[in-house]
Design brief:
The chain contains eight helices and 51 strands. With about 725 residues, the chain is mainly beta. α3 (about 100-110) crosses α4 (about 125-140). The chain is elongated and about 170 Å long.
């Protein structure tokens, strides 16, 4: 082991060198090279130091530790016996190995040492494992094999650079520092580049208890085959077999898988058995076609070999080889160098399909008297059908359908054409079928009846007597003789509702059945006048004596669109039955009501009306011959008094033979009569009639069983926290 301090060579790194015995004696022999990259914690200044942490000696990892231990024990190191040059560079302090710097370092090593260019190997742990991935990602065609261990690399791109490079990645399942998913992501990317296979490498991994979060019970090695693409998992560290990509997962060990890897000499045996054989390129990824095509293969150095039957391989040189593919073929190829070292055999399948899809389901040509349905199917990709293509018209319409099938209704004489076409452009022959339909008109329906729905609509029902109608036609008349078509009902239905009819009109109906063969006879005509539903409710009156106005409110409901005409009349209670119409010019508010709802009309009654009378108000609505009325009884033309301030004696002075009347008082008034000396003479309780009329009446003939004595009295009126006194003068 020799420490090459930074600055003592043209290398950008300080590094440790191991040369196998006899290297300096045999000046023509070329040796394989292993470059081992340390983790992020072993960077330094690239200068040898006996004890200083971070100095060049801390870069002694993996193979260099094996060499160091063998030399200390007086043994010829494993790598000496196998005649391998081993180099371990040291990354700069607090820095990672950069791929571009590593590429320059490899160029330096090839110029400084006698190396076998077909057997250059790179391995690394943690940060060094990640830079092992990243170096091949950025630079292709230089290495024979790599061993990334728990590699910290997050960008698995340019995976095609790994084609021709043997890969064996290692990781501990429970590594919490660098997740195993980084290794799995690289494995999936590389399998996609090798064989267009991107399924999860762990899909068949034997997890404990079938729990994807648990490792297998033992160390497992995943082996990827590019011949028949797919992953298989075998127990232990598996070195045998010709696989371009391997992944070994240890069930435990945290962030330290390299100790197990680098101490396993079987892994080193595998690495040293790998050789960068001539690289064959030019084969496109697998695809299917229906046309003969050619593939041109290239090899970067002699020789390449190819085969289309798996047994006879043809050799070609850097001049390339042109291969014609005219049928379904598995193309196999590999490189073999002048020392007869062969690379892995790659295989790619090319499908050759000249079979057009087959359309089925169309019956042979026939004649019938009833419509029918044709259900078409196609066995792959697309089918096409047309019912006007047989004319040769440029306007032919072709309808596409898939393997889900399609249904076509044949309702008249039709020429149906069908064919299949796949995504490769394979067309089947076009088949045409003539279906002749001699369709007779359907039987006429019977038993037509009408039902009033109550919503100014009539519901028609009938008996369907045919089995081949396309629809039923509805005819209507308002005179029973001239019928007009108004609507259709679907086949196999026996009901139709005619809505938005007019009040006071009798409607006649007939129904027929129809199809492409014609129309049946119509049913006998039936008639009905839809009933009008008309009502008035919630009537009320509010008198306003200040403007001689009665405000009349009411609600009307009707089931028709015809307008209702409004009229108002009144009759005195004392002259019941003698109705007097309110003139239209005395009314404000609508008298033509187009819709139902709540309404208000103001009646400005004439001066001639007796305001001391009580009246009955009649509100009438008329639609056609339909009339409805509502009545408001015992109506006073005077508005109820709310305050005492307007109270007044109606007949002052008054006579002993009559009553003393005080008017314009509230309904809840309390009246007490006193003499001028303050003696209470009478408590006057208003009758219901008095309350409605807004008055108080004191009967002067029967006060306390005696006639009132002539004189002056004071009536004390109380209502709503108001109090006033009205003077009453009583004459003999």
């Amino acid at each position: 082991m020799i420490y090459k301090d930074l600055g003592t060579t043209s290398s950008t790194f300080g590094y440790i060198e191991y040369l196998p015995p006899g290297y300096d004696m045999n000046t023509t022999k070329r040796y394989p090279l292993i470059v081992a990259l340390h983790g992020v914690g072993s960077g330094g200044d690239g200068i040898y130091g006996a004890t200083a942490t971070g100095h060049l000696q801390s870069a002694a990892i993996g193979p260099m530790l094996i060499i160091k231990n063998d030399l200390a024990a007086g043994r010829t190191p494993y790598f000496g016996t196998n005649e391998v040059v081993v180099i371990t560079p040291q990354a700069h302090s607090n820095a990672w190995f950069d791929p571009w710097e590593m590429n320059g370092f490899l160029t330096y090593l090839e110029s400084a040492y006698r190396l076998d260019a077909s057997r250059l190997y790179l391995t690394g742990l943690s940060m060094g494992g990640g830079r092992t991935w990243d170096y091949v990602r950025d630079y292709s065609g230089r290495l024979a094999a790599v061993i990334p261990i728990c590699g910290a690399s997050w960008n698995p791109t340019n995976a095609d650079h790994f084609i021709g490079v043997s890969v064996w990645a290692f990781h501990n399942w429970d590594d919490a520092t660098v997740s195993r998913t980084l290794t799995i992501d690289w494995a999936r990317a590389i399998s996609g580049a090798l064989a267009d296979y991107t399924a999860d490498p762990l899909a068949l991994y034997p997890h404990l208890s079938n729990n994807v979060n648990l490792p297998a019970a033992n160390t497992m090695t995943g082996l990827f085959s590019s011949g028949t693409p797919g992953w298989t998992w075998e127990p232990n560290v598996v070195t045998n077999g010709d696989y371009p990509l391997r992944v070994t997962l240890y069930p435990s060990g945290g962030h330290g898988a390299w100790t197990k890897v680098y101490s396993n000499y079987n892994v080193w045996d595998w690495l040293l058995s790998q050789s960068q054989t001539p690289k064959v390129t030019g084969a496109p990824k697998a695809f299917t076609t229906n046309k003969t095509f050619q593939i041109t293969l290239h090899v970067d150095r002699n020789y390449g070999f190819w085969s289309t039957n798996g047994s006879v391989f043809y050799q070609f040189t850097t001049s390339g080889a042109v291969i014609t593919i005219s049928r379904s073929t598995v193309l196999r190829y590999y490189g073999k160098d002048l020392l007869h070292v062969s690379g892995a055999t790659n295989s790619i399948s090319y499908g050759f399909d000249t079979n057009a899809p087959i359309v089925t389901g169309a019956p042979s040509a026939f004649s019938t008297n009833a419509p029918f349905t044709v259900t078409l199917d196609v066995n792959e990709t697309y089918g096409y059908w047309s019912t006007n293509a047989s004319t040769g018209s440029a306007q032919a319409v072709w309808n596409q359908f898939t393997t889900n099938g399609t249904s076509i209704d044949i309702e008249n004489t039709t020429s149906l054409s069908v064919y299949g076409r796949d995504s490769l452009g394979n067309n089947s022959a076009t088949n045409t079928y003539l279906y002749t339909l001699v369709v007779t008109p359907p039987a006429a329906p019977t038993n037509l009846t009408l039902q009033d729905t109550g919503a100014m609509a009539l519901r028609l029902t009938w008996t369907d007597k045919s089995a081949n109608e396309n629809a039923f036609r509805i005819y209507r008349s308002t005179n029973g003789s001239s019928f007009a078509y108004i609507a259709s009902a679907g086949a196999n239905t026996a009901v139709y509702t005619d809505s938005s009819l007019s009040a006071g009109v009798t409607y006649w109906y007939k129904v027929s059945a129809t199809n492409s063969g014609g129309e049946s006879a119509r049913t006998a005509g039936v008639s009905k006048q839809p009933a009008v539903i008309l009502s008035l409710s919630n009537s009320a009156v509010i008198p306003r004596s200040d403007t001689r106005t009665l405000s009349l409110s009411y609600s009307m409901m009707k089931n028709c669109t015809n307008a209702a005409m409004l009229s108002i009349a009144y009759a005195a209670v004392s002259n019941a039955g003698v109705w007097i119409a309110v003139l239209s010019h005395d009314l404000t508010g609508p008298i033509t009501l187009n819709t139902g709802g709540s309404f208000t009309n103001d009646w400005h009654y004439p001066l001639s009306m007796d305001i001391l009378q009580r009246y009955t108000i009649r509100i009438t609505a008329v639609v056609g011959t339909n009339t409805v009325s509502t009545f408001i009884t015992n109506v006073s033309l005077s508005a109820p008094v709310k305050k005492l301030t307007g109270a007044v004696m109606l007949n002052n002075p008054c006579r002993l033979s009559g009553d003393a009347v005080i008017t314009q008082v509230p309904e809840n008034v309390v009246a007490v009569v006193y003499s001028v000396s303050g003696k209470r003479v009478a408590v006057v309780t208003p009758t219901d009639a008095d309350r409605s009329a807004g008055r108080v009446t004191w009967d002067l003939t029967t006060t306390n069983g005696q006639k009132v004595v002539p004189g002056v009295y004071l009536c004390h009126l109380t209502s709503n926290s108001e109090t006033i006194i009205v003077k009453i003068m009583v004459h003999p």
